[in-house]
Amino acid sequence: MKQTEVKTPVQTRVQVQTPKLSRHPVGIMGGTFNPVHLGHLIMADQVMAQLNLDKVVFVPDAEPPHQDHKSTIDAKDRVAMLELAIQDHPRFELDLLEIARGGKSYTYDTIVELKKRHPLSDYYLILGADMIDYLPTWHRIDELAKLVTFVGVKRPGIEAKTTYPVIWVDTPEIALSSTKIRELVARHCSIDYLVPPKVKQYIHEKGLYLND
């Protein structure tokens, strides 16, 4: 009797392609924000629009490593003003990791932590032209340069040069600084149209900067 040969189906390995996870370009704007002013907001908005970033994250420091912090007010007031300044912008965010860490803040440490939290984000570090000149003095700058893209924002009267790769962005030139805001408040001068209205109200209600 002839036996029928039973063929076993050949198992083929199905090639399953894992979809590529999209990356997210994110602007980082660090600083003391003492106080935040319209220059900060215009800079962030212009960079976000021109480089097509998903969002800009503001990262206030607890104790700035590159500045004299004698005139820096309490972090809770600086954070409160930032919250008021960005609350109506859907693509501005606030991250308090440096405040939570306490002490002096170094951008390298902050970016390393952010990359651990958000591995699919590509970070664009937004800097005023005055800060670009100081890049060689920054903590672990060569390692930082491998982790972020530096974005330089031109400022009136400042010609910055650096050996580090920088994307330069033209924005409306506004000669405005937190130091100038504090000086105006101390002299009881108007800061209308220099800071958001809610920030102005907060400064006056809390009596900030009167002794600067």
Automatic annotation (TrEMBL):
CDD domains: NMNAT (cd02165). It comes from the Bacteria. Keywords: ATP-binding, NAD, Nucleotide-binding, Nucleotidyltransferase, Pyridine nucleotide biosynthesis, Transferase. GO terms for molecular function: ATP binding; nicotinate-nucleotide adenylyltransferase activity. It catalyses: nicotinate beta-D-ribonucleotide + ATP + H(+) = deamido-NAD(+) + diphosphate. One of its GO terms (biological process) is NAD+ biosynthetic process. Its EC number is 2.7.7.18. Pfam families: CTP_transf_like. Pathway: Cofactor biosynthesis; NAD(+) biosynthesis; deamido-NAD(+) from nicotinate D-ribonucleotide: step 1/1. The keyword Cytoplasm does not apply. Residues 28-183 form the Cytidyltransferase-like domain. Belongs to the NadD family. NCBIfam families: cyt_tran_rel (TIGR00125), nicotinate (nicotinamide) nucleotide adenylyltransferase (TIGR00482), PRK00071.1-3 (NF000840), PRK00071.1-4 (NF000841). This is Probable nicotinate-nucleotide adenylyltransferase. The gene is nadD.
